[in-house]
Amino acid sequence: MGRSRYQFLENQPHFLTCTVVNWIAVFSNPDLAQILLNSLDFLQRHQRLALHGYVIMENHLHLIASAQNLSREIAAFKSFTARSVIDWLKENRTEYLLEQLKFHKQSYKTTQEYQLWQEGSHPQAILSQEIKSWNICTITHSGAAMWMILLIGDIPVTGITWV
Asked: The pTM is what?
């Protein structure tokens, strides 16, 4: 068992939040938000993750997802997207953001120079229709959402983009 007090229930949909360290506004850049979208798409196409809804904001992501091993898939998602975002920032010489990600890196993370994501994803299992409604409502009313897609099965029912 990990350090977290939060638990994943196998094959159960969960409401998750992935947050950038110090709430840095990384995903206000559409190219960086696209990295998240591409990664979520990859996990879905390879049937590693069932995505029921998500919202990408400038400094965090909410999603409702399920998988046989959701903890492992979210860890892989965060690892891949962190590496991809940091590589993009280096290639595009975005020094300010790189300095921020370096400054806010946890001191015990000695094998890496930068940290994009805060640890954990605060999973909340969705066990009833009442909780499903609350989670969809939370995603829908998250304020400054950049992209919001709600899915029923594989069919997108809502797609909203804020500029």
From this structure: 0.79
